Amino acid sequence: xxxxxxxxxxxxxLETVNSAEETASRIAAEAGFADEEIMKISMAVREAxxxxxxxxxxxxxxxxxxxxxxxxxxxxxxTIRDQGRGLDVSNIPDPLAPENLLxxxxxxxxxxxxFMDEVEINPSQSGTEIKLVKHVHG
Amino acid sequence: xxxxxxxVDGVTIVDLSGRITLGEGSVVLRDQVRELLSKGxxxxxxxxxxxxxxxxxxxxxxxxxxxxVRNQGGELKLLNLTKKVHDLLQITxxxxxxxxxxxxxxxxxxxx
Lengths: 138, 112
Description:
Chain A is an alpha+beta fold. Chain A is 34% helix and 28% strand.
């Protein structure tokens, strides 16, 4: 498999969230992942896109979401970047903690970490970048 | 997402189909549960047999529905989870929070 890279710059809307999910599903399928893996990848990307649109950019029409897909022989690497104030990584609650179990939000990053092989979250004052990696097996 | 309701032995069964996600199904679910509670329907069974996708917002809406109904003295249970929804509730440790059934008749009888 040759290396391939594609990048999108999207508005901070719900349509972007749906588009990111669909694109991830298509690219994961093209990369040869099995159906179960495609579902996990597209869901992780959806959750990251929700974070970027809703929490990072707060639906601000003046702020963009950047979505990158990079295929290598070993990995599918997906990067989602927003233009918000930067996620406070130290303040992400554990959704499995008993006191958080019945909270109505806070599960997005946990789902991302559960479904991807590697996750890096890089906040800065100009926004947050989250990098998701799924290893190609076989 | 689409919903329809029916009554079986005093229990309101909400048949949902489609996706429960941010901005779509989550709002429909929220509005449906609120409407049922406002009409005094406090025994609610959500039939998720045709829900093929749920995201974290949708899970949050299920949790919200559960606690809202419970806080009003009612019961909300889940029926017929698809594998995807089942697995998500498992990994988020919510599977044991909800009362999940896979048979409608049994589910209806289980309401107090």
